[in-house]
Amino acid sequence: MSGPVSDLGRARDESGEVVAVEGLDGGMVEITARLPHLAATARPGEFAQLRAWGGVDPLLRRPFSVAWTAGELCSFVLEAVGAGTRLLVGLRPGDPLQALGPLGNGFPLDPVPVRAVIVSGGLGCAPFPLLVRELRRRGCADVIVLSGAATASRLYPAARFRRGEDSVRVVETTDDGSRGRRGLVTELVADACDETAAVYACGPNPMLAAVARTLQRLARPPRRAHVSLEAPMGCGFGTCLGCALPASGGGWFLCCRQGPVREVSEVDWPGLLALPPAHVA
Amino acid sequence: MSGPVSDLGRARDESGEVVAVEGLDGGMVEITARLPHLAATARPGEFAQLRAWGGVDPLLRRPFSVAWTAGELCSFVLEAVGAGTRLLVGLRPGDPLQALGPLGNGFPLDPVPVRAVIVSGGLGCAPFPLLVRELRRRGCADVIVLSGAATASRLYPAARFRRGEDSVRVVETTDDGSRGRRGLVTELVADACDETAAVYACGPNPMLAAVARTLQRLARPPRRAHVSLEAPMGCGFGTCLGCALPASGGGWFLCCRQGPVREVSEVDWPGLLALPPAHVA
Amino acid sequence: MTAPDLRVDLGRGLILPNPVGLASGTAGYGFELRQLIDVDRLGALFTKGTTLHPRDGNPPPRVAEVRGGMLNAIGLQNPGVEHVASAYAPEFSRWGVPVVVNVAGGNVEDYLQCLDRLERAEGLAGYELNISCPNIANGLDFGRDPAAAGRLVAAARSRTGRHLMVKLSPNVTDIAAVARAVEEAGADSVSAVNTYVGMKIHRGIRAPVLPGRGTGGLSGPVIKTLALAAVAEVRRAVRIPVVGVGGIMDAGDALEFLIAGADAIQVGTATFVNPTASLEVLDGLTEIATRAGVRRLRELRGPALPAMPPAGIEPASTG
Amino acid sequence: MTAPDLRVDLGRGLILPNPVGLASGTAGYGFELRQLIDVDRLGALFTKGTTLHPRDGNPPPRVAEVRGGMLNAIGLQNPGVEHVASAYAPEFSRWGVPVVVNVAGGNVEDYLQCLDRLERAEGLAGYELNISCPNIANGLDFGRDPAAAGRLVAAARSRTGRHLMVKLSPNVTDIAAVARAVEEAGADSVSAVNTYVGMKIHRGIRAPVLPGRGTGGLSGPVIKTLALAAVAEVRRAVRIPVVGVGGIMDAGDALEFLIAGADAIQVGTATFVNPTASLEVLDGLTEIATRAGVRRLRELRGPALPAMPPAGIEPASTG
Ligand SMILES: Cc1cc2nc3c(=O)[nH]c(=O)nc-3n(C[C@H](O)[C@H](O)[C@H](O)COP(=O)(O)OP(=O)(O)OC[C@H]3O[C@@H](n4cnc5c(N)ncnc54)[C@H](O)[C@@H]3O)c2cc1C
Ligand SMILES: Cc1cc2nc3c(=O)[nH]c(=O)nc-3n(C[C@H](O)[C@H](O)[C@H](O)COP(=O)(O)OP(=O)(O)OC[C@H]3O[C@@H](n4cnc5c(N)ncnc54)[C@H](O)[C@@H]3O)c2cc1C
Ligand SMILES: Cc1cc2nc3c(=O)[nH]c(=O)nc-3n(C[C@H](O)[C@H](O)[C@H](O)COP(=O)(O)O)c2cc1C
Ligand SMILES: Cc1cc2nc3c(=O)[nH]c(=O)nc-3n(C[C@H](O)[C@H](O)[C@H](O)COP(=O)(O)O)c2cc1C
Ligand code: FES
Ligand code: FES
């Protein structure tokens, strides 16, 4: 096993309560719940294992990035893609929400980069509101979010990346040109980077692989680059060994403890892209 | 296989809608649903296979006697004893209710008896409102209901047996004497019977066996006596062979097609009483 | 979009009009279900397990529900082959649906006598040899021992020119070995699977719900994941057609069995939940095939098999 | 009501403080779970399957959810016995919970070398021989062949005076025969069951979700009915203690295994759903036993067994 292993010492299983469910454009939903422990301890890029149903179908919890925290409240951004997410987006204020977290390795913040280049594809937006806030809090003056989606309605709203941090630039692209620049968000990465930059990316595997390829070719590569990955999870806390992903240099790393955030060079990109599509939830 | 076999020709699978759910004393509930076909065709003692949930847990439908019909409406009387009944008693007006029926052999009405002695134990009341009405419609002047329960709150209300047929006598007993006569309802059977009577009984197996024993000892036995029995059911329509009950003379009969109503002499009473308690849902 | 050809040629003259059958023991001999649904639209009806002599079956309780499934311990209640051949078969010949008689027995001689009697009856589309019902004498030996299964099937083969399907038990170490043995012995097709041995415990009485040894045969959606693995394994082991059965509740489930390698499927427990289930599976599959633009259902299997290397190359992996 | 004595004497010096263990492969080597729950309150911790050499495990995806359960194809990823013996075992000796090392191998020599290394380590409560993990070379031969299982256990027995538990595979024709063989060969106890071979089909890509042969090991509530039957059968076959495992989600499920004949139980997949599940099972069982007024848990089995005649008298019945 390679790479830093997440700290489980902060993780706790908490019975929370939904306080708000907001529908965004294009099917995205932001769920906010009272989860004091998670809200107090989660760092950008960390996730929680959620359950909002009884019985055994669905059986396992589902992993979601902590998108935002405010006082005792935590927010998650998601979309209905299967049984579990369907139940989650159907929650109403007052409903119980069980959360185990924080889990996983978050995005590294130290040393605070001079420039932060955030690359978000579709639902890959989820961890970034919290990251933006934390970077700004720590004094990163130059935060730029490259936000891409297939079409305008599937873009995560720029204001939600910023949440009051008005100096943060959000540059949008859509595959169909319906908003922002037409094209792939990865095309903007090269221009946004310099050797002072730290890159943070989250989105579909092909997008992340394109980011990795782009960075490799740069004359002045960023000082560091991290991606947040997904794997089907059994436990989320390192005991089932179910969430293996291909590591550079051979072998696997556990997405839940040696990820989900991973240094870009520590990922076996061809191996990741070769995974069957069902692997990508 | 012995005994008359039910007519499946009238059975239909119908998507109905709940119109009322009334809670009675002691946990009993009367559910009324719009089920035009069942309402139009069900005869006293027949049952329907109900389902009011999606998914596979519970999996099978649950059998319930048709307690009452009015126009397009059908009523069922039940109590929450397990997962299926819990879901049923939790229904609300407007909820869908799937019903396959009518199923099984009902109570024989021809020739119309001079006197009808109905013996009801606890939830065994369910088929009797419809039977009372039908007997009266066909001109049976002397209908008496012997209604027993453990305690007053578990007695099915006398008015619900009658439903306007004011000439019908309802005699109540409770084990603890909290209403009506103290004792077992079966103790009244001998006095209520004569050779002109037809006996109709439904309730727990030990009660039905006591009725059978009582009748056997009578100097002037009733002209006929029928009991309505229960068995765990797979299908309810004769294809799984799961609902076997011990028949007098050896072998089994199918509760769903050669029952649930059965001539008292056609039941192997010691065999029935020897069944494990789990058999009695 | 042209309508797909739903016919399934199972071999030796048995061509099902479509791939959806009613599973043995869940449709009796068809008489009850005919009053509820249009059985004649279906691909096949597999009768209740039929034995040489009439059988009363087991004492109650015979069925018990568990999460997502049911246990049964019917004990092969059936009127015996004579009644089936003389009273039922003439009816079958008038029906549109091919009727396959499921045959069970305690020893080879029972099976053969049963077949001999059925051979003299018209109106039967073929036989499904139930070597997987562990409820009579040595019944389980056939389903659990490849050599014994092979001997039984070879003997049966010599008695009939009709289609001979063999119903496999999943309660075995190596279902592929049994499948290969019956294929070599002359079976025209195999159906997989019969029920899994299960037990329900009643917490109140602190005992099993079913009498006797307390076990019954588990069926319903709860077995689908297991049945799919069994069907895929059998598919890799033999060349003859495979009929998939186990937990199919809707067309999507049926599609999964076709993908796993089944040529046709049977709907069992679902009929209890919804008498129309089999017809809904048929209509759903037809729609899926039409949308996918395939001419024959077999094409739905398509890309699945390449992902599954032949047995031996790469071991199944768990733990 | 006096508090019941929860201790379970599994033999050869292994006395569990209570009957609730964490199942192999669902608790790693305890380090992660200790950060989440008070593992020291539990009856035992069964480690991840440990092999002679470190193993990377299978390619992803390794887990897939199905209705009421999950498939896994981990492929025995583990750091190898040397690391377990030298780095982990010293930690185990400091823990309150007895740690039983689950040992897996491809051939007898692998198992024996593994045991030899573990014998030199302190802090181990015993071994659980995993003869039921079909994922390495001939791994499955042991679990599926009574004679091979017996030989392996006899060899292992000669190497250790520690408690030797054998984990049985349910994917066999006759689990009782395997249980008897390992008992005769000197096993102190058996655990039943390991996972069932299952397959999940992805309708979109029309292929199995798991790679390779597409199969994985099925665990979770969906297997409870099958596991109960297996435990009851093993219970009747042997005199040594039986540890029940398969689909236990709460104390009621655990009670069912005790009724079916288990002396202790393991909680597996439930821990993924709820890390505290094992402790809740323990507290629930304690409450049930207290209410029932029993002095020892074994009394809960009580009336169940009389209802189950010894094997051979009355056949299990289905169909
Ligand atoms: C660390 C981490 C963080 C994450 N953070 C987020 C986040 O912040 N926001 C977010 O939205 N997501 C996030 N995800 C992804 C999220 O966890 C998954 O989308 C979620 O688990 C899906 O659960 P489900 O029950 O809805 O879908 P599942 O039922 O698990 O299925 C997933 C997909 O597969 C399909 N599928 C499943 N079985 C079959 C079959 N037999 N045939 C055909 N198709 C099938 C479903 O239709 C669906 O499209 C994260 C994942 C990880 C690992
Ligand atoms: C022809 C016929 C007509 C009927 N008519 C009526 C009627 O009109 N009204 C009426 O109320 N009922 C009627 N019944 C009975 C009714 O069908 C049953 O009560 C119903 O099916 C129970 O379903 P359930 O899901 O609620 O309970 P189930 O879950 O099936 O369980 C029944 C009982 O067993 C217990 N149980 C189940 N499994 C276990 C276990 N593992 N451990 C411990 N306990 C367990 C449950 O707690 C419950 O008490 C009729 C039955 C028949 C056959
Ligand atoms: C009540 C019942 C009776 C059955 N009887 C037989 C039988 O007589 N012969 C047989 O081969 N299979 C029999 N089966 C097994 C089914 O044909 C089928 O193989 C099994 O139920 C799995 O399919 P399912 O999950 O769709 O029900 C029976 C199943 C049930 C539920
Ligand atoms: C992810 C996973 C990994 C497992 N690894 C092992 C293992 O290494 N050795 C072993 O004997 N059993 C292993 N098992 C089987 C479990 O110990 C247990 O026998 C099985 O999961 C059934 O119990 P459950 O339904 O409570 O999970 C594993 C199970 C799961 C789910
Ligand atoms: S999800 Fe279980 S180890 Fe990562
Ligand atoms: S319930 Fe199926 S035959 Fe009676």
Description:
The complex is a heterotetramer, with two copies of chain A (about 280 residues) and two copies of chain C (about 325 residues). Chain A has two domains: about 100 residues, Translation factors (Elongation Factor Tu (Ef-tu), domain 3, Beta Barrel); about 130 residues, Nucleotide-binding domain of ferredoxin-NADP reductase (FNR) module (Rossmann fold, 3-Layer(aba) Sandwich). Chain A is about 20% helix and about 30% strand. Chain A is built from seven helices and 16 strands. In chain A, the strands form three sheets. In chain A, strands 4-3-7-1-2-6-5 form a seven-stranded antiparallel sheet. In chain A, strands 11-10-9-8-12-13-16 form a seven-stranded mixed sheet, with helices on both faces. Chain A has a two-stranded antiparallel ribbon with strand order 14-15. The longest helix of chain A is centred in the last third of the chain and has 13 residues. Chain C has about 325 residues and is α/β, with parallel strands linked by helices. Chain C has one domain: Aldolase class I (TIM Barrel, Alpha-Beta Barrel), CATH 3.20.20. Chain C has an eight-stranded parallel beta barrel, surrounded by six helices. A four-stranded antiparallel sheet of chain C has the order 5-6-14-11, with no helix packed on it. In chain C, helix 6 packs across helix 7. The C terminus of chain C is likely disordered. Classes of the chains: A alpha/beta (about 280), C alpha/beta (about 325). The interface between C and D is large, with 79 and 80 residues. One flavin mononucleotide sits at the interface of chains C and B.
